[in-house]
């Protein structure tokens, strides 16, 4: 719309409407015991005031018990419930197939155990219906979420999601909560790019969405662990790490770019007389921000090195310490120091790796020189040399990041319409 609506006039038009259609997909594998209760509760919730037209799709992935028969019988006795059968197992495969075939405006995924409280379903779907967001996820780690689960899964979940944020710069907090939704016109092009058919499907979908500039809405949820789970936690963790490496490689090569996705216009003020602020991005701001981040990184590196040096030789201890802190350092500089610069292209990832390699050469070279000059230096002399060399490497890193990796983009020649 070209005109700005008056206050209160457009409220009804922008409110959730029954004209939107929602398809709730439930993947199942050997769930003949859990499925009847799930459909009874979910269908009751949707029928009791859910403001959109809805359908429930049960996807049976190669169950070997009576799940398919139970699902088919329930679909015959319940309105708006349908069954899709697959001969191959895989949660990602189930979602890819069901979402790909769906003709609804919004597609939803939830686990059959209903671990996530259903009162989060409407907040999950509404931002997609009104066009504010492209995908929506439930989060057990966002502010306001409440969870009841064992310590083992809590630690694994937090570590995995931290790894995603550190290695890929992801903004979402919980990649694998079984409670997600997407606009169908947005998710279908993404599905063609997602390669995983198992538990990494969720993470890959979200990473591709953010990489391609889509907006992911996050809803804090109430979540209660069901110990009757089909998930092999260790096997899933190993597969997820391999998946993160694969997606990173796709970003570097440019294969993670998805054609045909709708593009959001640049943010602009609604008020015609608004006085717009500018993001600080001058040399002074960059020096201050980079200096603070570099100081914190140096302290972390020195501390880690002092700890790891108790077990490992100096070069290995330095490599591990630098690798850990560089993940945080690069992401912090992308978000706070070099503003308004693109940091998602393959060129940036490759150049960032080169900068890290040069930084490692400077610090490791200083340690090698120290041991050549004094074969048995004290531990604190090693740390001092590391601090000084890290400062030199940090200065070099700033110059390369500013002039090479995050160099200003060429001015656009396009005129605003």
Please tell me about this protein's structure.
- Helix content is 51%, strand content 12%.
- The longest helix has 28 residues, at 346-373.
- The model is unreliable at 1-17 and 412-417 (pLDDT under 50).
- The radius of gyration is 25 Å and the shape is elongated.
- It is built from 13 helices and nine strands.
- Helix 6 runs parallel beside helix 9 (233-253), helix 10 (283-308) packs antiparallel against helix 11 (314-337) and helix 11 (314-337) runs antiparallel to helix 12.
- Strand 2, helix 3 (67-77) and strand 3 (81-86) form a beta-alpha-beta unit.
- The strands form two sheets. Strands 3-2-1-4-7-5-8 form a seven-stranded mixed beta sheet, with helices on both faces. A two-stranded parallel sheet has the order 6-9.
- It starts with 10 loop residues before the first helix and ends in a 12-residue tail after the last helix.
- The protein has 417 residues and is α/β, with parallel strands linked by helices.
Runs in which pLDDT lies below 50 for 5 or more consecutive residues are: 1-17, 412-417
- Written as H for each helix and E for each strand, in order along the chain, the element string is HEHEHEHEHEEHEHHEEHHHHH
Number of strands: 9
Helical fraction equals: 40-55%
Which class best fits the helix and strand makeup?
alpha/beta
What about the largest sheet? 7 strands, mixed
What average pLDDT do the residues reach?
A: 84
Strand order of the largest sheet: 3-2-1-4-7-5-8
The number of helical runs is: 13
Radius of gyration, Cα only, in angstroms?
Answer: 25 Å
Note the beta-strand portion.
5-15%
Shape: elongated
Distance between the termini: 14 Å
């Amino acid at each position: 719309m070209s005109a700005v609506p008056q206050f209160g006039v457009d409220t009804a038009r922008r409110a959730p409407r029954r004209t939107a259609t929602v398809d709730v997909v439930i993947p199942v594998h050997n769930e003949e015991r859990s499925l009847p209760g799930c459909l009874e509760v979910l269908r009751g919730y949707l029928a009791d005031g859910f403001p959109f037209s809805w359908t429930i799709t049960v996807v049976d992935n190669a169950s070997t018990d009576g799940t398919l028969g139970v699902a088919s019988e329930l679909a015959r006795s319940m309105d708006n419930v349908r069954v899709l059968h697959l001969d191959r197992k895989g949660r990602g495969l189930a979602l890819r197939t069901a979402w790909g075939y769906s003709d609804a405006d919004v597609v939803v995924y939830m686990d059959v155990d209903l671990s996530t409280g259903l009162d989060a379903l409407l907040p999950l779907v509404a931002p997609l219906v009104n066009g504010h967001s492209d995908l929506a996820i439930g989060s057990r780690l966002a502010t306001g979420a409440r969870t009841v689960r064992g310590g083992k899964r809590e630690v694994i979940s937090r570590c995995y999601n931290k790894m995603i944020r550190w290695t890929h710069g992801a903004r979402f907090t919980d990649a694998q909560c079984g409670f997600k939704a997407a606009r169908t016109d947005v998710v279908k092009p993404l599905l063609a790019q997602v390669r995983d058919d198992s538990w990494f499907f969720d993470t890959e979908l979200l990473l591709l969405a953010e990489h391609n500039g889509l907006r992911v809405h996050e809803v804090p949820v109430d979540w209660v662990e069901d110990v009757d789970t089909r998930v092999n936690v260790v096997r899933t963790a190993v597969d997820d790490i391999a998946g993160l490496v694969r997606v990173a490689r796709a970003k570097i090569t440019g294969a993670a770019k998805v054609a045909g996705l709708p593009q959001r216009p640049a943010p602009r003020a609604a008020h015609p007389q608004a006085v717009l602020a500018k993001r600080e991005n001058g040399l002074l701001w960059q020096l201050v921000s980079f200096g603070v981040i570099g100081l914190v990184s140096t302290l972390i590196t020195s501390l880690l090195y002092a700890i790891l040096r108790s077990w490992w030789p100096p070069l290995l201890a330095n490599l591990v310490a630098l690798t850990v802190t560089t993940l945080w350092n690069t992401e912090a500089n992308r978000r706070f120091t070099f503003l308004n610069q693109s940091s998602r292209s393959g060129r940036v990832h490759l150049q960032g790796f080169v900068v890290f390699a040069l930084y490692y050469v400077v610090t490791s070279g200083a340690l090698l020189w120290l041991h050549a000059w004094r074969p048995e230096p004290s531990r604190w002399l090693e740390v001092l040399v590391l601090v000084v060399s890290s400062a030199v490497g940090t200065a070099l890193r700033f110059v390369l990041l500013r002039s090479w990796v995050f160099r200003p983009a060429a001015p656009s020649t396009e005129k605003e319409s």
